[in-house]
Amino acid sequence: MAEEELELVFVEDLQLTEVMRIRVQTLQQKGQKRQDGERLLLPYEAVYRLDFSNQELAFLRWRVGVKGPGRLSVTGISQLWTPDLTNLMTRQLLEPTGQFWRSAGDPDDSPLKCLEADIQEFGERIAELAKVRKVMYFLFAFKEGAEKANVNCSVIFKPLSG
Fold first, then answer.
1. Partners of 77 in the beta sheet?
2. Is 72 helix (H, G, I), strand (E, B) or coil?
3. For labelling alongside 149, which of 44, 49, 74, 130 has CA 20 to 30 A away?
4. Residue 112 has pLDDT above 80, yes or no
């Protein structure tokens, strides 16, 4: 990686993932429905975060690895969200999402497929939002054979200031 690049690795937020799983369990146990517009965590999803040590960034590219076939879907959450205080609402989810996949039958060393325009726009949105926050949350969905242990994901930026 060149010296003028900054790679930020997505890190699973185990505590927030657990809070969201407990919310689903609580609703199920009490036989209650979700709040109108609420986004519940699905069994194959987890909460990840990016911490911005530098908030003046220009998006360069994604670095995503998936071993074997599978799909990783990355959805940004638009505001500083605290699930211990508020439920996640669908209106807080950013468009577009980042979709990365390898089809069954593709060689393991083949490049991942993605929707180039979407991941470019998404990366630029992350850089924009970094200007006003130190941390940003994301929903990662592991589908079609992708497993948490076999996926790594980071975003590479160019720092605009020291």
1. 93
2. strand
3. 130
4. yes
CA distances from 96 to 77, 93, 121 (A): 11, 9, 7
Is the pLDDT reported for residue 42 higher than 90? yes
Of 65, 63, 72, 57, the closest CA to residue 124 belongs to 57
Tokens representing 18?
């657990």
pLDDT in tens, 134-147: 899 999 999 999 99
Q: Where are the alpha helices (DSSP H) in the chain?
A: 14-30, 116-130
DSSP state of 53: S
How many whole angstroms separate alpha carbon 10 and alpha carbon 76?
A: 12
Q: Which two tokens stand for residue 13?
A: 């937020």
How do strand 6-9 and strand 11-12 relate by DSSP bridges? unpaired
